[in-house]
Write a structure and sequence with these properties.
Layout: E1 5-7, H1 9-13, E2 20-23, H2 33-44, E3 52-58, H3 59-64, E4 69-70, E5 91-97, H4 99-110, E6 113-115, E7 118-125, E8 141-145, E9 151-156, E10 159-165, H5 166-170, H6 177-192, H7 198-212, E11 217-222, H8 227-237, H9 246-255, H10 261-273, H11 282-293, H12 309-317, H13 319-336, H14 352-360, E12 365-366, E13 372-373, H15 375-391, H16 399-410, H17 419-429, H18 451-458, E14 474-478, H19 482-487, H20 492-495, E15 501-505, H21 506-512, H22 517-521, H23 527-536, H24 541-569, H25 580-606, H26 608-612, H27 614-647, H28 653-660
Parallel strand pairs: 2-5, 3-11, 12-13
Antiparallel strand pairs: 1-11, 2-4, 3-5, 6-7, 7-8, 7-10, 9-10, 14-15
Helix pairs in contact: 6-7, 11-14, 13-14, 14-16, 15-17, 16-17, 24-25, 25-27
């Protein structure tokens, strides 16, 4: 095993872009100014700045393995460019861990940090170091526009600050550091009338010494030649920082054979993600491409050996077809299955078999044509996807599962979608199963990974995860708030059960907060609003409706028929509008019809098989339309009648009322029972 080695910042910085480079697997520079300040404060306080990992290889191997080396940027806004100059006998060090820190040193000492499109440089407040600030910083560093000069003085409230350019301190001669610091003190005294203390002069010398002579870069020179192992080392050492996808690492291999690869992938991801609707990544696209051409399970795995020229050429040649298959499959999610957010799809790998089926059958759109996806196939895709997600078969290592799905598609090239064949292969040929337990919903809880999917199914795809205003973003809300249930000694698993959760807009959720259910129900301004709110979230009736619908269907429809007959049998003459008794008979008949319609609507909405039936869908539309029209017309009548009643009581209307004996008109009043949500009970 290799030993760790030490070098000074100066030794490494002076060799950056000569001996020290970045492998193509590295990300861009991303550090914020505050991270730079903390790094230099740590140096001044003798704190360790963590270890570094360099991949040490001779130029000869780098040429043979076709390893790309990138240059460090000289400004914070630059992009890393490839350096193609390689000397076969020279040893190069490619930075696997520590890129952000080394880039920081290089920018501060040799380049510039760009802020508001202007070059800034790092300055050291040489009067700091006595008292730690609230943010934990003792020695203060800050970026200023380089036109401020080598040093300048400013007053920050009651605090004096004397800023000196770090580049100027780095350029001091260590051999003459005592006289150099003495000259700095003389210049500062002459210009600002400030006499530096011994500690402040020592701080200048210390910063110079720590940048030029102290060997504070403690690194491990990795000599491994197996590129897959190097990638694995890189992933492990970078797991604590900004996450990298494995495909980002593999792009160094792909780009060497297909220069447009990253642009093509980025373009496709922008199209299918739609401003963060979904969160598909390069990993997802690459895994899909691997499955398209795999001849065994091993071919689905992320390995550099799988990305040989032959595979990359196939991906490049078929890219248009791959792109179309991926885009059509995401259209299925959004437009047909109404899974309109990444929150509802917690395993992207479950989508890949759908893409493969679309790709293999050269499907182009939706419809009944031979090269389109019809409604029957949409239904099969929906069943497959929901079962695959809820069963968790794609959790963990899913390469075997993916290849079994590929085999099912290959053996059923003709349509329809082979969801059942996929399930059969998974259930019989792997250790996993797509079978769902009868108590599957009992295992779904508030904000769990699968809760968004389950709620979206319950709400029939009506939830908008991409609203125009952030206040309408859907959130999960406890119907009966946690506080009132805990007070009632309800177990925590019951409180957070999916049966006590609903979708609600962000703003509305904040308004409701922990309001008890009974108080919340009193907050609606009208009975119509309250009724609509209850009907919209009437999920608990689902189970009982499904269990008892068969024997209840007839009675509900009978009740509607009888109520309709009664309602149409009671006639009302215009003159009866002035007769409260006659008008009340008409209202009572309407109430019975209203109640029967409401109960039927609940059943239709909560019973999946009915919703899928074309006849009942039409019936539901007609019932809802009738209910809305009745409500609107009653409202209009009440408004007109109210205005009329006012008019006959006020001057000059009251004069004519007495002459022609105008009578007040009766109004429709809300039925007390309408305040309650219809309950579906099957006794």
């Amino acid at each position: 095993m290799q030993d760790y080695e030490r070098k000074s910042v100066s030794e490494v910085t002076e060799e950056i872009n000569k001996t020290y480079f970045l492998p193509d697997i590295q990300r861009s520079f991303v550090w914020k100014p505050e991270q730079v300040y903390a790094l230099f404060d740590s140096i001044m306080r003798d704190y360790p700045i963590s270890t570094f990992l360099f991949w040490k290889q001779r130029g000869e191997y780098i040429q043979e393995a076709d390893i790309k080396k990138l240059e460090f940027v000289k400004t914070s806004k630059d992009k890393n460019k490839e350096n193609t100059e390689i000397h076969s006998a020279k040893e190069y060090l490619l930075v696997l861990d520590g890129q952000q820190r080394l880039t920081t040193f290089y920018l501060v000492l040799k380049g510039n940090y760009i802020i508001r499109n202007s070059p800034y440089e790092l300055y050291f407040n040489i009067l700091s170091g006595n008292e730690e600030e609230e943010d934990g910083i003792l020695y203060e560093f800050k970026f200023y526009n380089r036109n401020r000069g080598m040093h300048f003085f400013e007053k920050d409230g009651d605090i004096d600050k004397l800023w000196y350019g770090v580049k100027g301190i780095y350029d001091l001669s260590i051999a003459k550091i005592f006289s150099e610091v003495t000259n700095i003190n003389k210049n500062i005294k002459a210009k600002y009338n400030i006499e530096l203390t011994d500690d402040q002069r020592n701080s200048i010398a210390k910063l110079c010494q720590y940048l030029k002579t102290e060997k504070i870069i403690y690194y491990y020179p990795e000599l491994e030649k197996n590129y897959d192992k190097v990638l694995d080392i890189f992933v492990r050492t970078n797991s604590g920082g900004t996450p990298l996808s494995y495909s980002d690492l593999l792009f160094s291999t792909i780009k060497s054979k297909w220069n447009e690869a990253r642009d093509k992938f980025d373009g496709l991801l922008n199209n299918i993600n739609e401003n963060d609707r979904y969160r598909f990544t390069n990993d997802f696209i690459l895994k899909t491409a691997l499955l398209l051409y795999a001849t065994n399970t091993e071919g689905v795995r992320y390995k550099t050996k799988n990305f040989k020229s032959d595979l990359i050429n196939k991906i490049q040649t078929d890219w248009k077809s791959i792109e179309q298959a991926v885009e059509l499959s995401t259209d299925v999610l959004k437009d047909k299955l109404f899974l309109t957010s990444h929150k509802t799809i917690y395993s992207n790998n479950a989508i890949i078999p759908i893409i493969y089926w679309v790709f293999k059958n050269k499907l182009k759109g939706f419809g009944i044509e031979t090269n389109c996806i019809d409604d029957g196939e949409i239904s099969k895709i929906k069943t497959w996807l929901i079962k695959a997600l809820l069963s968790g078969v794609f959790g963990g290592q899913s390469d075997t599962i993916l290849y079994k799905c590929k085999e099912a598609v290959d053996n059923n090239l003709a349509k329809p979608f082979p969801g059942e064949e996929m399930e059969k292969r998974i259930n019989t040929e792997t250790k996993k199963s797509t079978k769902l337990d009868s108590d599957i919903l009992d295992k779904v809880f508030y904000n769990s990974a699968d809760s968004y999917l389950v709620l979206s199914i319950c709400y029939g795809g009506t939830v908008n995860f991409s609203p125009r205003f952030k206040g309408n973003l859907p959130e999960q809300d406890h119907i009966f708030c946690q506080d009132e249930l805990r007070t009632a000694k309800i177990p925590e698993e019951k409180i957070n059960s999916i049966f006590n959760i609903r979708y609600i807009g962000s703003t509305e959720n904040k308004t409701k907060s922990n309001t008890p259910f009974s108080q919340w129900m009193q907050s609606f301004s009208s009975e119509a609003e309250k009724k609509e709110e209850l009907k919209k979230h009437l999920i608990p009736n689902l189970v009982e409706t499904v269990q008892g619908y068969a024997r209840h269907e007839k009675s509900v429809l009978t009740a509607v028929t009888e109520a309709r007959s009664m309602a149409t049998a009671v006639k009302i003459d215009p003159k009866d509008l002035e007769n409260p008794e006659k008008f009340q008979q008409y209202v009572e008949a309407q109430k019975k019809l209203d109640g029967a319609l409401s109960r039927l609507l609940v059943v239709v909405e909560q019973y999946p098989q009915l919703k899928a039936n074309e006849g009942f869908l039409k019936l539901q539309d007609q019932l809802e339309g009738a209910e809305n029209r009745i409500s609107v017309e009653r409202k209009r009548y009440n408004e007109a009648a109210t205005e009329y009643n006012k008019a006959i009581r006020k001057f000059p209307g009251n004069i004519f009322t007495g002459i022609w004996d105008f009578k007040p008109l009766a109004l429709f009043k809300a039925d007390e029972k309408a305040k309650e949500v219809p309950k579906v009970k099957f006794d």
